[in-house]
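Please, why this fold?
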Amino acid sequence: QVLLQESGGGLVQAGGSLRLSCTASGRAFNTYHMGWFRQAPGIEREFVARITENGGTTIYADSVKGRFTFSRDNAKNTVYLQMNSLKPEDTAVYYCAADPPPYATVRNENSVGGYDYWGQGTRVTVSS
């Protein structure tokens, strides 16, 4: 069992920045691919970003590309999502997720089903 705890959400004005953090339990964190998803009211949970186990590869949804940066510190069992130039449409609950080996296929790596463990979420509200 892997426990994930997000933090860093809050209320910010459009154009502002926030940094989300997600800390994982256990000793195998450096083997996990990690993801961020978000869910706005009445909308299905959607993919935001993914990072490989060593941070060498990151993938972003088109809606956040160029504004969000996904990084990780394996020594701290923590991943970060730096969110800049925030827009009202970024308002959602943001969830951290872990994909331990064997990893999701390319077909699933950007979908909810490609991850085995989830945090409780942290709310981000962007005012206009």
Remarks:
- The mean pLDDT is 96.
